[in-house]
Amino acid sequence: MVLIRNQQADTPMPRAAAAADADIPLRKIDFFAMGTRCLVQYVAPSEEGAAAFEAALRSWVVRYEARYTRFRDDSIVGQINRAAGNGAWIEIDDEMERMLEMCGTVHFMTQGIIDVTAGPLAVLWDYHTPRPRLPTDEELRAAMARVGWSRVEREPGKVRLPEAGMSLDFGGWGKEFAVDMAVQIAQEHGIHQVLVDFGHDIRVLGAPPGRPAWHIGLEDPDRPGALWGSIGAVDTAVASSGNYQRGFEIDGQRYGHIIDPRTGRPTTNGLRQVTVVASSCLQAGLLATAAFVLGPIEGIEFIQATPGAEGCMVSTGAKHQTRGFFQHVVS
Questions:
Q1: What residues have CB less than 8 Å from 22, skipping those under 6 apart?
Q2: Which domains does the chain show, CATH number per domain?
Q3: pLDDT digits (tens, 9 = 90+) for 206-234
Q4: Left, alpha or beta for 112 (phi > 0: left; psi -120 to 50: alpha)?
Q5: Overall pTM surpassing 0.85 (yes/no)
Q6: 264 and 144 in contact (C-beta within 8 Å)?
Q7: In this structure, what are the phi and psi dihedrals at residue 304, rounded to the nearest 5 degrees?
Q8: Alpha-carbon distance 114 to 92, whole Å?
Q9: Which strands make up the sheet holding 227-233, listed edge to edge?
């Protein structure tokens, strides 16, 4: 996971505006969900408004995780995965129908790079194993036979996975979607100054009290824990994708955790990190991961083809960026 630190920007505001705004308290919610740390900083219209927002947010996150995690057999995703290959259809509600529609949209817009059925490949290249090894060609072919959004069978109100070993996993974009929903919940409660950070996938509204923008630090992949720059963010989202922390090395070759489902293998294009600024966290995250897999040249073109999105791609000794990316960089 690429670290994105959030701080308040140091750029000064006009003195009168800063004085009028600086004393407003910035509230924080800090909890663990979806396998990661979740941090929300916001300005509330009142004590009652703050309490109502926090209750609504926590309730939504708990329900969302319970429904769509692959780690619980009683979740709808767990039920679908458990029935893979046995011929049984799993009944689904309208909300799950919309989530599956989104899976198809995500698959199409990322040229098949983000595929909710790619779980068998992650198992094959599991970097958590104490003694990682390279899969055989036969193992790779067997895993690839269980991957592919087009293999998911759907009818109105029901879905099934036809092959044993197939699975659905929303981990490729589930947190980014949750960030956008958290921002929507904030808006519904009259909150218009907020930073939502779920596992360093970030979206902001407005600016923090007394400051012109939220300050989002960008980790240096060659010096984990240090920053190579930062972004001044207002009404935008920032997400990064990188393989320099998660993966394994065999015979001098590094195999990162980001896998191209079109080939079944980890990416080896020399990229270390991709950061994207976009209007939504879901869009930023999808673009960052897809661009990382595509590589420096195609990846930049892919980001630039999305109106309003800007990105920066870091490889060893070089940075490649879209034309407007460094308009966002403040240090």
A1: 209, 210
A2: 4-46+173-327 (3.10.520.10), 68-172 (1.10.3980.10)
A3: 999 999 999 999 988 888 888 888 999 99
A4: left
A5: yes
A6: yes
A7: -65, -20
A8: 22
A9: 4-8, 214-219, 227-233
